[in-house]
Amino acid sequence: MSPARAAESVDYVLAALADPTRRALFEATLKTPGLTTSQLSDRVPAMTRWGVIKHLAVLRDAGLIQTMATGRLRRHYAETAALNPLRQWLDGVRDS
Question: pTM for this structure?
Answer without folding.
Answer: 0.89
